[in-house]
Structures are given as C-alpha cells and as structure tokens.
C-alpha cells in the first residue's frame, strides 16, 4: 500500500498530513516519532491523520505530537487541513471534526484560512487541574514567575504575561511547567508580552513538541486571557510569533476565530517509514 503525505506549515508551525479516509492508517508512537524527527525523518511539529468523518463533516482529524502523544486540537494544523479539503471540494467554506469540537473554516483574502475553534473553558476541571483550585487566584511559582492565566481552547494552556521575553529561558522553563504534577494531562506553556492594545508578542513551549515557531491555540488562549484579565480591550488581536503573525478574534458570542497564512511545502510517499 502506498501512503502519500503532504507537508504544510502555518507560520512555520509544520505538519505531515496523511489522508486515511479511504484506508485507515495505523501509526504507533515509534512511527510518529520517526516521521517527526528532524534529523532522520521528514521533520515536523505534529503528524496529522485524516479519517472518515463521524458526523456530517468533510473529515475527522487526529493530531499527534512529535513525541508520539496525542492532542485534541491544533489551530494551525486545522487551518492547513481545511485548506486542502476546501481545495478538494472546490469550496471556500468547510466543516472539519476533531476530538475537541466541530470547526468551521473558510478561505479568506490572499489565501489566508480562518478557523472558528469554538469557546474557551476556564474551570479547574476543564483545564484540567489535579485538584480543585480557584483558577483566577492561582499562584504558579516557577523561576520567580507568579501570576499566570489558565485557559482550555481544545487543549490546555498556561499563560505568563511578562515585560521582557528575552529573559525567559523557554527551553528550561517550558518542560518544567509542562510536566508539573498540577496538570494531569500536561500543559502548553506560553510567555507573552503586551505590545499595545491589540498586539501581543508570544513564545510557546508546546506539550509533546517543545519550542515551536507558532501555535494557533496558544495565540488564541493568550488573546482570551489578555482580554479576560483586562490587559487589552480590543476583541481583535494580532499575535506576533517567531514564524509570523496570526489574527485572533474573541467574538462577543464567546467563539474564537484565528486567521492566518498557510503553505504547502512538499508532497511525497511515506512507505520508507513502514
């Protein structure tokens, strides 16, 4: 059996996308790690598999981190997959299915893709945390960082708002926070600097993948946290990451819409990994 793949990126947050709608694809943890490896494999932040939809949508999407673990959501990967499916179905709007939610996507100006990832969650058991804690009053002390915000946007995020991102050793602080016992499912770690009322600079340590050049759900969670904590008062925010800029809108109905560019890097055959 020949297994084809498409490698894409959204703001240099890159993915290997495999279409398993016609014939189911089984990848164990070791195969995921081998594919994602940047030295001997194809190299990516996540491996994404399309399956037959469970509901009346175009596809069901599974996301795998580069360490082989699974995650319920990935904003940039969802935008990449949506682009492929809209191209296939010759449409500018499409609905895709993930473990977290049904996502409505659309093709907008300059081949940018917008995805509505639904509403954020804030309760301790929705993050989730190991024990019942007042999420708004949490003091999470790591490397003298105390005040933080917790948001689940399909996957869990902790956000620290800091004055100087250059002083943050993300490679050291990221895994320490990610694997803290307070978070039974581990957590994505965000460090953000408010630039003005609708611009934020962001660096992210992704659960299961490490440092990435962009993170759509991280940008979304950071925007929501900034608005909720009255650090900004605009509902449309531009998030600047190493890979580029993502526009996040936290709508009055509670839904989050992310919009940004995508790019197809290459296509190929996966059989060497089996």
Structure summary:
The protein has 274 residues and is an alpha+beta fold.
Number of E-type strands: 19
Largest sheet: 11 strands, mixed
Low-confidence stretches: none
Q: Provide the CATH architecture of the largest domain.
A: Roll
Choose one word for the global shape: globular
Bin the strand percentage: 35-45%
Order of helices and strands: EEHEEEHEEEEEEEHEEEHEEEE
Termini, distance in Å?
10 Å
Q: Supply the CATH class of the largest domain.
A: Alpha Beta
Number of helices: 4
Q: What is the CATH T-level topology of the largest domain? A: Diaminopimelate Epimerase, Chain A, domain 1
Q: Could you estimate the helical fraction of the residues in percent? A: 10-25%
Protein architecture, described:
The protein has helices spanning 29-36, 75-89, 170-178, 216-228; strands spanning 4-10, 13-19, 46-51, 60-65, 70-71, 93-97, 102-108, 112-118, 139-142, 145-147, 149-152, 156-161, 188-196, 199-206, 210-212, 236-241, 244-250, 256-260, 263-269. The protein is an alpha+beta fold and 274 residues long. Strand 16 (236-241) and strand 17 (244-250) form a beta hairpin. The mean pLDDT is 93. It has two domains: 4-118 and 261-273, Diaminopimelate Epimerase, Chain A, domain 1; 135-254, Roll (Diaminopimelate Epimerase, Chain A, domain 1), CATH 3.10.310.
Ordered list of secondary-structure elements with their pairings:
Elements: E1 4-10, E2 13-19, H1 29-36, E3 46-51, E4 60-65, E5 70-71, H2 75-89, E6 93-97, E7 102-108, E8 112-118, E9 139-142, E10 145-147, E11 149-152, E12 156-161, H3 170-178, E13 188-196, E14 199-206, E15 210-212, H4 216-228, E16 236-241, E17 244-250, E18 256-260, E19 263-269
Parallel strand pairs: 2-3, 12-13, 14-16
Antiparallel strand pairs: 1-2, 1-19, 3-4, 4-5, 6-7, 7-8, 8-18, 9-10, 11-12, 13-14, 14-15, 16-17, 17-18
